[in-house]
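Lecture notes, part 5. Sequence design as translation. It can be helpful to think of inverse folding as translation between two languages: the language of shapes and the language of residues. The source text, in structure tokens, appears below.
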């Protein structure tokens, strides 16, 4: 079982370009010196497996019968965690805006369910999965995530993040990086400074 410390997780995610350093315009319009693009982890399947084992290592004595994740972000890491645990995996998705288990996915009554997500901020989607699990008669054991971006959460289950990463942002008008003439990148841009 691989045990990864938070600095090790941060370093691995930076190496995978899942966490970028530079000068970014976020979707909110605010500027930041950090950007999280967690999907980049998927370019390295061995890293996904390693992170999944690290998540399993954080579970301690908690018993898990099933892993559930919200599409799209949670699917790959959720699958990898289920594989590491040797349990089944299901994912939820939105149908006309409502989070639901489609494709015949079911939560057995009484199943102890670990909800897995890549990045959790307020955890809106995670909260919906937690409620779906409860409505189906399952028991949400905990929420595991690669990154907790901080702030209050909209779910009432224990959060087990591999990394806590508070990404600071500020108004463009008061941006020191702009004042220093550091090139600004919008998310998705290829030209990023490390
Ligand atoms: Zn700026």
């Amino acid at each position: 079982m691989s045990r990864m410390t938070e600095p090790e997780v941060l370093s691995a995610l930076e190496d995978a370009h899942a966490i970028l350093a530079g000068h970014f315009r976020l979707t909110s319009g605010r500027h930041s010196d950090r950007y999280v693009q967690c999907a980049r982890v998927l370019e390295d399947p061995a890293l996904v497996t390693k992170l999944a084992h690290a998540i399993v290592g954080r579970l301690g004595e908690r018993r898990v019968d099933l892993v559930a994740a919200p599409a799209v972000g949670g699917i790959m890491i959720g699958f990898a965690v289920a594989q590491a645990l040797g349990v089944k995996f299901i994912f939820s998705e939105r149908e006309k805006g409502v989070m639901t288990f489609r494709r015949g996915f079911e939560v057995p009554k009484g199943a102890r369910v670990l909800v897995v997500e890549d990045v959790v901020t307020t955890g809106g989607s995670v909260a919906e999965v937690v409620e779906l699990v409860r409505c189906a008669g399952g028991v949400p054991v905990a929420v595991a995530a690669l990154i907790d971006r901080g702030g209050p959460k909209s779910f009432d289950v224990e959060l087990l993040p591999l990394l806590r990463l508070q990404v600071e942002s500020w108004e463009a008008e008061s941006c020191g990086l702009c004042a220093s003439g550091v090139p600004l990148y919008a998310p998705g841009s290829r030209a990023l400074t490390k």
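The translated text above is only one of many valid answers, since several sequences can fold into similar shapes. Residues 23, 31, 172, 175, 177-178, 184 surround zinc ion (CB under 6 Å).
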